[in-house]
Specification:
CATH architecture: 3-Layer(aba) Sandwich
Structural class: alpha/beta
Order of helices and strands: EHEHEHEHEHEHEHHH
Strand content: 15-25%
Bound molecules: adenosine-5'-triphosphate, magnesium ion
Helix content: 40-55%
Radius of gyration: 16 Å
Largest sheet: 7 strands, parallel
Shape: globular
Length: about 230
Protein backbone atom coordinates (compact mmCIF):
# COMPACT_ATOMS: atom_id res chain seq x y z
CA UNK A 1 0.00 0.00 0.00
CA UNK A 2 1.21 3.52 -0.73
CA UNK A 3 2.14 5.41 2.42
CA UNK A 4 1.15 8.69 0.78
CA UNK A 5 -2.52 7.71 0.60
CA UNK A 6 -4.24 8.66 3.81
CA UNK A 7 -7.94 8.84 2.90
CA UNK A 8 -8.70 7.12 -0.36
CA UNK A 9 -9.53 3.41 -0.07
CA UNK A 10 -8.56 1.16 -2.93
CA UNK A 11 -10.10 -2.17 -3.87
CA UNK A 12 -8.54 -4.24 -6.65
CA UNK A 13 -10.27 -7.06 -8.50
CA UNK A 14 -7.81 -9.63 -9.78
CA UNK A 15 -8.04 -13.09 -11.31
CA UNK A 16 -5.83 -14.65 -13.90
CA UNK A 17 -8.85 -16.65 -15.06
CA UNK A 18 -10.96 -14.95 -17.71
CA UNK A 19 -14.65 -14.42 -17.09
CA UNK A 20 -14.57 -14.91 -13.33
CA UNK A 21 -16.45 -11.69 -12.61
CA UNK A 22 -13.79 -9.00 -12.15
CA UNK A 23 -15.55 -6.41 -14.30
CA UNK A 24 -19.01 -7.22 -12.96
CA UNK A 25 -17.86 -6.78 -9.37
CA UNK A 26 -15.63 -3.77 -10.12
CA UNK A 27 -18.45 -1.85 -11.80
CA UNK A 28 -20.97 -2.93 -9.16
CA UNK A 29 -18.79 -1.94 -6.21
CA UNK A 30 -17.91 1.37 -7.85
CA UNK A 31 -21.58 2.24 -8.40
CA UNK A 32 -22.38 1.14 -4.86
CA UNK A 33 -19.74 3.58 -3.66
CA UNK A 34 -21.51 6.34 -5.59
CA UNK A 35 -24.92 5.31 -4.20
CA UNK A 36 -23.42 5.57 -0.72
CA UNK A 37 -22.33 9.13 -1.39
CA UNK A 38 -18.65 8.43 -1.96
CA UNK A 39 -16.59 10.13 -4.65
CA UNK A 40 -15.56 7.06 -6.61
CA UNK A 41 -13.04 6.38 -9.37
CA UNK A 42 -13.01 3.18 -11.41
CA UNK A 43 -9.69 2.44 -13.11
CA UNK A 44 -9.69 -0.10 -15.93
CA UNK A 45 -6.26 -1.67 -16.42
CA UNK A 46 -7.58 -4.22 -18.90
CA UNK A 47 -6.74 -3.46 -22.56
CA UNK A 48 -10.10 -5.13 -23.39
CA UNK A 49 -11.58 -2.05 -21.74
CA UNK A 50 -14.78 -3.70 -20.50
CA UNK A 51 -15.22 -1.35 -17.55
CA UNK A 52 -14.17 1.64 -19.63
CA UNK A 53 -16.68 0.80 -22.37
CA UNK A 54 -19.34 0.21 -19.72
CA UNK A 55 -18.60 3.72 -18.45
CA UNK A 56 -19.04 5.11 -21.95
CA UNK A 57 -22.50 3.51 -22.17
CA UNK A 58 -23.64 5.28 -19.03
CA UNK A 59 -25.83 8.37 -18.90
CA UNK A 60 -24.84 8.87 -15.28
CA UNK A 61 -21.54 10.74 -14.76
CA UNK A 62 -20.47 8.87 -11.62
CA UNK A 63 -18.34 6.95 -11.03
CA UNK A 64 -15.53 8.48 -13.02
CA UNK A 65 -14.23 5.68 -15.22
CA UNK A 66 -10.78 5.85 -16.75
CA UNK A 67 -8.55 3.51 -18.70
CA UNK A 68 -5.14 3.36 -17.09
CA UNK A 69 -1.83 1.57 -17.17
CA UNK A 70 -0.41 -0.30 -14.23
CA UNK A 71 2.88 1.61 -14.38
CA UNK A 72 0.96 4.84 -13.79
CA UNK A 73 -1.15 3.55 -10.90
CA UNK A 74 0.71 5.32 -8.12
CA UNK A 75 0.53 8.61 -10.00
CA UNK A 76 -3.19 8.14 -10.71
CA UNK A 77 -3.86 7.37 -7.06
CA UNK A 78 -1.93 10.41 -5.91
CA UNK A 79 -4.04 12.52 -8.28
CA UNK A 80 -7.22 10.89 -6.98
CA UNK A 81 -6.21 11.65 -3.41
CA UNK A 82 -5.62 15.28 -4.38
CA UNK A 83 -9.08 15.48 -5.95
CA UNK A 84 -10.82 14.20 -2.84
CA UNK A 85 -11.69 10.77 -4.18
CA UNK A 86 -12.93 8.48 -1.39
CA UNK A 87 -12.92 5.13 -3.14
CA UNK A 88 -10.89 3.71 -6.03
CA UNK A 89 -11.84 0.42 -7.64
CA UNK A 90 -9.34 -1.21 -9.98
CA UNK A 91 -10.44 -3.67 -12.66
CA UNK A 92 -7.65 -5.81 -14.10
CA UNK A 93 -7.06 -8.08 -17.06
CA UNK A 94 -6.83 -11.87 -16.92
CA UNK A 95 -3.47 -13.39 -17.87
CA UNK A 96 -1.54 -10.31 -16.85
CA UNK A 97 0.55 -11.14 -13.82
CA UNK A 98 2.58 -7.95 -13.78
CA UNK A 99 -0.45 -5.66 -13.78
CA UNK A 100 -2.28 -7.76 -11.22
CA UNK A 101 0.76 -7.61 -8.95
CA UNK A 102 0.94 -3.84 -9.28
CA UNK A 103 -2.76 -3.54 -8.46
CA UNK A 104 -2.22 -5.70 -5.36
CA UNK A 105 0.69 -3.51 -4.28
CA UNK A 106 -1.42 -0.34 -4.18
CA UNK A 107 -4.68 -1.82 -2.92
CA UNK A 108 -6.03 -1.80 0.61
CA UNK A 109 -8.04 -4.87 -0.28
CA UNK A 110 -7.82 -7.39 -3.09
CA UNK A 111 -10.84 -9.38 -4.17
CA UNK A 112 -10.42 -12.53 -6.22
CA UNK A 113 -13.67 -13.57 -7.88
CA UNK A 114 -13.94 -17.30 -8.50
CA UNK A 115 -16.73 -19.24 -10.16
CA UNK A 116 -17.76 -22.52 -8.54
CA UNK A 117 -16.34 -24.72 -11.30
CA UNK A 118 -13.49 -27.18 -11.29
CA UNK A 119 -11.72 -25.17 -14.02
CA UNK A 120 -11.81 -22.04 -11.90
CA UNK A 121 -10.56 -23.96 -8.88
CA UNK A 122 -7.76 -25.45 -10.94
CA UNK A 123 -6.74 -22.01 -12.18
CA UNK A 124 -6.91 -20.03 -8.95
CA UNK A 125 -3.47 -20.93 -7.62
CA UNK A 126 -1.70 -18.50 -9.97
CA UNK A 127 -3.85 -15.64 -8.74
CA UNK A 128 -3.41 -16.58 -5.09
CA UNK A 129 0.36 -16.62 -5.60
CA UNK A 130 0.30 -13.06 -6.94
CA UNK A 131 -1.69 -11.82 -3.95
CA UNK A 132 0.54 -13.78 -1.57
CA UNK A 133 3.73 -12.32 -3.08
CA UNK A 134 2.53 -8.77 -2.52
CA UNK A 135 1.28 -9.44 1.03
CA UNK A 136 -1.98 -7.81 0.04
CA UNK A 137 -5.05 -8.38 2.18
CA UNK A 138 -6.89 -10.66 -0.20
CA UNK A 139 -10.16 -12.54 -0.18
CA UNK A 140 -11.72 -14.93 -2.62
CA UNK A 141 -15.33 -14.11 -3.35
CA UNK A 142 -17.31 -16.90 -4.94
CA UNK A 143 -19.25 -15.56 -7.89
CA UNK A 144 -22.10 -16.83 -10.03
CA UNK A 145 -23.05 -19.52 -7.54
CA UNK A 146 -26.38 -21.19 -8.24
CA UNK A 147 -28.81 -19.19 -6.05
CA UNK A 148 -30.76 -22.25 -4.99
CA UNK A 149 -27.81 -24.46 -4.16
CA UNK A 150 -26.18 -23.21 -0.96
CA UNK A 151 -24.35 -26.54 -0.67
CA UNK A 152 -22.48 -25.66 -3.86
CA UNK A 153 -21.04 -22.68 -2.00
CA UNK A 154 -20.04 -24.76 1.02
CA UNK A 155 -18.46 -27.48 -1.13
CA UNK A 156 -16.40 -25.05 -3.17
CA UNK A 157 -15.40 -23.00 -0.15
CA UNK A 158 -14.24 -26.13 1.68
CA UNK A 159 -12.36 -27.41 -1.38
CA UNK A 160 -10.59 -24.05 -1.77
CA UNK A 161 -9.65 -23.78 1.88
CA UNK A 162 -8.35 -27.35 2.01
CA UNK A 163 -6.30 -26.96 -1.16
CA UNK A 164 -4.82 -23.56 -0.40
CA UNK A 165 -4.48 -23.14 3.34
CA UNK A 166 -4.57 -20.38 4.66
CA UNK A 167 -6.66 -18.90 1.88
CA UNK A 168 -9.44 -16.58 2.94
CA UNK A 169 -12.85 -17.01 1.36
CA UNK A 170 -15.38 -14.36 2.32
CA UNK A 171 -17.24 -16.05 5.15
CA UNK A 172 -20.80 -17.20 4.57
CA UNK A 173 -21.20 -15.05 1.49
CA UNK A 174 -21.31 -15.45 -2.25
CA UNK A 175 -22.61 -13.64 -5.29
CA UNK A 176 -25.31 -15.64 -7.06
CA UNK A 177 -25.69 -16.32 -10.74
CA UNK A 178 -28.37 -13.82 -11.66
CA UNK A 179 -29.39 -12.49 -15.04
CA UNK A 180 -29.65 -8.92 -13.75
CA UNK A 181 -25.84 -8.76 -13.59
CA UNK A 182 -25.76 -9.45 -17.33
CA UNK A 183 -28.71 -7.33 -18.47
CA UNK A 184 -27.81 -4.22 -16.50
CA UNK A 185 -24.31 -4.09 -18.01
CA UNK A 186 -25.72 -3.74 -21.53
CA UNK A 187 -27.29 -0.43 -20.49
CA UNK A 188 -24.18 0.86 -18.75
CA UNK A 189 -25.73 0.09 -15.38
CA UNK A 190 -25.18 -2.43 -12.63
CA UNK A 191 -27.70 -4.66 -10.87
CA UNK A 192 -27.61 -2.55 -7.72
CA UNK A 193 -28.62 0.48 -9.82
CA UNK A 194 -31.17 -1.09 -12.15
CA UNK A 195 -32.89 -3.10 -9.40
CA UNK A 196 -31.58 -1.87 -6.05
CA UNK A 197 -34.13 -3.91 -4.12
CA UNK A 198 -33.62 -6.99 -6.30
CA UNK A 199 -31.64 -9.97 -5.09
CA UNK A 200 -28.57 -9.21 -7.21
CA UNK A 201 -28.54 -5.58 -6.08
CA UNK A 202 -28.92 -6.59 -2.46
CA UNK A 203 -25.98 -8.99 -2.72
CA UNK A 204 -23.74 -6.17 -3.93
CA UNK A 205 -24.91 -4.00 -1.06
CA UNK A 206 -24.05 -6.74 1.43
CA UNK A 207 -20.65 -7.27 -0.22
CA UNK A 208 -19.93 -3.55 0.02
CA UNK A 209 -20.83 -3.56 3.70
CA UNK A 210 -18.59 -6.57 4.31
CA UNK A 211 -15.67 -4.82 2.63
CA UNK A 212 -16.36 -1.71 4.68
CA UNK A 213 -16.17 -3.91 7.76
CA UNK A 214 -12.72 -5.11 6.68
CA UNK A 215 -11.03 -1.91 5.50
CA UNK A 216 -13.35 0.91 6.62
CA UNK A 217 -14.34 2.44 3.30
CA UNK A 218 -16.11 5.52 4.63
CA UNK A 219 -14.00 8.59 5.38
CA UNK A 220 -15.02 10.55 8.53
CA UNK A 221 -16.93 13.20 6.57
CA UNK A 222 -19.38 10.69 5.09
CA UNK A 223 -20.06 8.62 8.18
CA UNK A 224 -23.77 8.83 7.56
CA UNK A 225 -23.49 8.00 3.90
CA UNK A 226 -25.48 4.82 4.28
CA UNK A 227 -28.62 6.81 4.79
CA UNK A 228 -28.31 8.08 1.20
CA UNK A 229 -30.32 5.80 -1.08
N1 LIG B 1 -22.91 -13.29 -10.71
C1 LIG B 1 -23.13 -13.36 -12.02
N2 LIG B 1 -24.32 -13.81 -12.50
C2 LIG B 1 -24.56 -13.88 -13.82
N3 LIG B 1 -23.67 -13.53 -14.77
C3 LIG B 1 -22.47 -13.07 -14.35
C4 LIG B 1 -22.13 -12.97 -12.97
N4 LIG B 1 -20.86 -12.48 -12.87
C5 LIG B 1 -20.44 -12.29 -14.14
N5 LIG B 1 -21.39 -12.64 -15.02
C6 LIG B 1 -21.31 -12.60 -16.48
O1 LIG B 1 -20.19 -13.39 -16.87
C7 LIG B 1 -19.47 -12.78 -17.91
C8 LIG B 1 -18.02 -12.54 -17.46
O2 LIG B 1 -18.05 -11.64 -16.36
P1 LIG B 1 -16.98 -10.46 -16.26
O3 LIG B 1 -16.84 -9.75 -17.55
O4 LIG B 1 -17.37 -9.65 -15.07
O5 LIG B 1 -15.69 -11.31 -15.95
P2 LIG B 1 -14.16 -10.82 -16.00
O6 LIG B 1 -13.44 -11.57 -14.96
O7 LIG B 1 -14.09 -9.35 -15.95
O8 LIG B 1 -13.74 -11.32 -17.44
P3 LIG B 1 -12.32 -10.98 -18.17
O9 LIG B 1 -11.33 -11.86 -17.50
O10 LIG B 1 -12.57 -11.34 -19.60
O11 LIG B 1 -12.05 -9.53 -17.96
C9 LIG B 1 -20.20 -11.50 -18.27
O12 LIG B 1 -21.08 -11.76 -19.33
C10 LIG B 1 -21.00 -11.19 -16.99
O13 LIG B 1 -22.20 -10.49 -17.26
MG1 LIG C 1 -13.12 -7.98 -17.20
Amino acid sequence: MLAILTQVKTIALISQKGGSGKTTLATSLATQGCLEGLKTLLIDLDPQGSSYKWGKRRDIPAPTVMAGQAVALEQILEGAEGQGVDLVVIDTAPHSEKDARKACEVADLVLIPCRPSIHDLDAIEDTLNIAELTKATAFVVLNAVHPNAPKQFEDVKNALEMAYDPIKVLAGFYISNRSEFVHSASDGLTANESEPEGKAGQEIKVLFEMLDGIIGIYPPNVNNARTIE
